[in-house]
Amino acid sequence: MTPDLTAASAFVAATGFELAEVTGTRVTGHVEVGPEHHTPWGVVHGGVYCTIVEGAASVGASAAVVERGQFAVGVNNSTDFLRPMTAGRLDVLAEPVQQGKTLQLWLVTLTREDGKIAARGQVRLQNVPLPGS
Predict the structure, then answer these.
(1) Known catalytic residue: 54?
(2) Tens digits of residue pLDDT in 72-124
(3) Which CATH number is 113's domain given?
(4) Which of 21, 43, 68, 96 lies 20 to 30 Å from 103, alpha-carbon distance?
């Protein structure tokens, strides 16, 4: 069974992240953040950014290897929180830095409506066999 890579997992979807484009070389989408994403101090929780970064990279990296009977699992996620946010739209762009036979490295940026980057992350992923293949 080939997974549907056009829909985020339930966990990622809980953040509100909506995928727009999914290929093995580019993933785009957006999320509207607000009070439901806040820390007790009223700013978006860093875990939201990490989840979106990992989700976008995982979907793109998996799309790149699905025809080989593989999917990609994150082995490292390094996300930087550059600007605090309280509410608004974040545009998501994920692109590979390197795609090898066993490992991939993806860069993901989350950009505010004013064009400034709120967070960016790199995810290292390992290509592994799809279950049942």
Answers:
(1) yes
(2) 999 999 999 999 999 999 999 999 999 999 999 999 999 999 999 999 999 99
(3) 3.10.129.10
(4) 21
Count the domains in the chain: 1
Bridge partners, 60 (sequence order): none
| pLDDT tens column, 60-74 | 999 999 999 999 999
Domain that holds residue 70: 10-129
* DSSP, residue by residue, the chain: ----TTS--HHHHTTT-EEEEE-SS-EEEEEEE-GGGB-TTSSB-HHHHHHHHHHHHHHHHHHHHGGGTEEEEEEEEEEEE-S--SSEEEEEEEEEEEE-SSEEEEEEEEEETTS-EEEEEEEEEEEEEPTT-
In a domain, 17, yes or no: yes
Residue of 36, 54, 67, 113 marked catalytic: 54
